[in-house]
Design a protein that fits this description.
mainly alpha, 199 residues, 2 domains, Serine Threonine Protein Phosphatase 5, Tetratricopeptide repeat
């Protein structure tokens, strides 16, 4: 073990959730210790039960992928939800994906859209793209090509692959007035969510 992992273990054994989470990451990645997902699960669980959102996300991820524990979408959704409710963007996306696919939860496009929107409003381009798809298809949200265009445009501005192509495909569904409305909405979203550093 490295000095860092020794210090981390000492603090973790004293109940520090941050140290428990860091130790879980070390075991997940095999940094300074042998990779051991089962031990990572143990440390993440201790921190997650104390409300540490990074640990909750990581525990959900391990359940989602069956690493160190039996794969369980239900347990993954449980832990993702706890982290998502604390604002963890990755957990919000993963929970949105679970509602979208009906994995571990009953399929519900409206709930998928809710979680994607929270992540999208935090600047996550994947969630912005997914909102574009949901609006384009009318799944869980209003079928609205202008909204689809705007969310795709925002994701494209952030560099998300395929968003520009999807945005351009939506243009064919819009009349002239609708396109103007979509472009206005797109600019509003960019101004709201792609803010540069404060001057």
């Amino acid at each position: 073990m490295s000095d860092f992992s020794d210090k981390c273990r000492e603090a973790a054994e004293q109940g520090d959730p941050e140290a428990q989470t860091r130790l879980g990451v070390l075991y997940t990645e095999g940094q300074g210790v042998d990779r051991d997902y089962s031990t990572a699960v143990r440390w993440f669980r201790l921190a997650a039960e104390q409300g540490h959102f990074d640990a909750q996300y990581n525990l959900g991820y391990l359940y989602d992928n069956g690493q160190g524990v039996a794969q369980s979408y239900e347990e993954a959704a449980k832990w993702y939800r706890k982290a998502a409710e604390q604002g963890d963007v990755y957990a919000q996306n993963n929970l949105g994906d679970m509602y979208d696919a009906g994995q571990g939860v009953e399929q519900d496009f409206g709930k998928a859209a809710k979680w994607y929107r929270l992540a999208a409003e935090s600047g996550d381009s994947y969630a912005q793209h997914r909102l574009g798809e949901l609006h384009q298809e009318g799944l869980g949200v209003e079928l609205n090509a202008s909204q689809a265009f705007a969310w795709y445009n925002l994701a494209a501005a952030a560099g998300f692959p395929s968003s520009a192509e999807c945005r351009d495909d939506v243009v064919d569904q819009l009349g002239e007035a609708e396109l103007e409305d979509a472009q206005r909405l797109a600019l509003e979203l960019i101004a709201r969510f792609l803010k540069g550093p404060s001057a």
